[in-house]
Amino acid sequence: MNVRDEHTRSLWMDVSVADAPALSGTVGTDVVVVGSGIAGMSVAYELASHGRSVVVLDRGGIGSGMTARTTAHLATALDDGYDELVRVRGSERARHYYQSVAAAIDRAEVIQLAEHIDCDFQRVDGYWVLSPETPASELDEELVCCRKLGIPVENRIEPTPFHAEGQVRSLRFARQARLHPTKYLAGLASALERRGARLYADTCVESIHQQHGDMVVTTASGHEVHAADVVVATNSPVNVQVAIHTKQAPYRTYALAAKIAAGALEDALYWDTLDPYHYVRLQPFSADEDIVIIGGEDHKSGEANDGAQRLDALERWARDRLTGLREVTHRWSGQVLEPVDFTGFIGRSPGEEHLFIVSGDSGQGITNGLVAGLLVTDLITTGASPWEEVYAPSRKIQKNIGEFISENITPLKNFAEYLAASEMASVERLRPGEGRLVRSGLKKIAACRDRNGRLHLHSASCTHLGCVVHWNALEQCWDCPCHGSQFAPDGTALNGPAVSPLASAEKPVNLEAAE
User: What pTM was computed for the model?
Assistant: First the structure.
């Protein structure tokens, strides 16, 4: 199981990436990649193209994790802004960041052509659209910063459908791109199999350690993969307890897809300047219709349980601006991990030589996953990358300390909540699809009734670091607000960093609900 088993289904989930068996014995390889999303499959493809033998493991189906819950913008524009990146990381790091994402998009274009992958790849413009709530100086500062860095960007004075009345300003970023992410992954899977790579689905990794000079990956079923190098590309890394998780924060984001007449909206990427911002793109559908994909309404994971209402708000926002919008075909949510200093964590896991991680996708997970394919492959094959310092997982947070402190207050608030529950009604009153935290003495219990009416009782302590999980009614899962783990109603871990399921809890006679 993985996040594909949550309740909503995205537009991309209609495509099956690859059929793969579960690992059924001990195997050896040059490199084992844990995770088969855009990052894991890109790394695997590049390494296989360099002649390395590769094994890919995934806790669920191949390509069915968080990559299938994105909206798949390929962007050199930085959603936090290059002016902010320069302030926190400096001009040199900002230039290297731009070079890395530009090279990654170019690489995706080359791969889909070389491997004949029909994934609707298209170069498009990207527009950062000024909202009336935002001062024009925000665009001015970004424009000046990008020009100093040598990043191609233009000031555009022309309204888009996403401007408020009387607003006309945007920044135009040329040569952005969009693609169908699961079609692209399916093409990578086929290319990997032609190169002799082995893919294993429904194989949960339980531990990674070094033994007699080898890296050993052990699965929940007790099988092992021995390799020279291991790459953990699991959205949120499952191999570290603290080192990365204090430097990024999990956020839920929402998206919907709806039909629109072909040609009614320019094929481009759009973002507005609100916080949280809205993001929009097109996906080809037929000769007469396109699919428009709208995302936004983000919040910290586990700190809201109103996903349906947020999707409704997203639809209202879209219909106010796109009067020709037709029926909504898909509604879904996903999770992004926001690094506090604006670039992801791609490279050697802290303190490790042969263990690599990919995380901190922010709102640009597909682009960052493509970067990982190039960067991690360079580190494994040559020992260095020109972008290594930009993404180094071991880097210290030297600026933006206020953001670092703010994001790390969540675990403190969460542990205080563990001790301060008030009593409510009996869990017997839970209806199908409902969940809440309940108290039995000093123990806090995650109680939910699945959509089939079966009651599930588990410890409310996340199996990563013990934070209290919160019910997500939209996705019918438990979310950990501290580091982004997610669990099914039966307690199974769906998303890292947690690997183990929630512990089972017995139902006491006097069990009462708590807020």
Answer: 0.95
